Amino acid sequence: MTGDFNIHDSSWDLSFSHHSSISDDLIIVADSFNLDLSSPTNQVSTRYSDTSGKSNSIIDLMFLQSRSTELNNHLIHPDWHLMLDRALLTVTIPIMEENINSTRFSIVKNSKEETSFIKEVSSLIRNLDVSNLSNIDRLENVVNSLALNIDYTWEKNSKLINISRYFKSWWNNECNECLRNYRTSRSLEDWKIFRKTVKTTKHSFFDLKIQEISNKKP
To answer: Does one domain contain both 86 and 6?
Structure first.
């Protein structure tokens, strides 16, 4: 929270000799939003008077997250005010690096791996021993065992794939094959086949989605 609060106070302006109860109210309001008054790294004026006899002052303040070790001060830029009567206040916000995975394990829709996965999971469910679920502990054992077996089945049938701009819900094995052919040959004819396959696949996919939506009862 930052801006011109138009409050002269000795708490943030050492050249001012008085303390105001309004300042206390401002601190209380800021605290209710979990904010603390920030201390500038350079203690200089924020408002520059162009009236003779009036001194410069500090009435532009910044409040940052309470008890933060990273956001705990700001910088005043008196040389940036140019023709204005105010200096600019800035704060540096650290941004942590984020590791974005470019691969993931997946099972391609309508593939033989998907068929195998569904078949094996169906068999696991059918063969569950639920004859003696007399207490919560036994129920949890059965559920945990099923979960472990499904995880194993997923790992056995899934493949590590690269996430790219081609990673779409309509993308299938035929698209993969055509793209692979083009990358191998780099021929114009294979490129045309690839583009035609993509176009046909997308149309078929979305036509099916539209049909599913239209067939749903309101």
So the answer is: yes
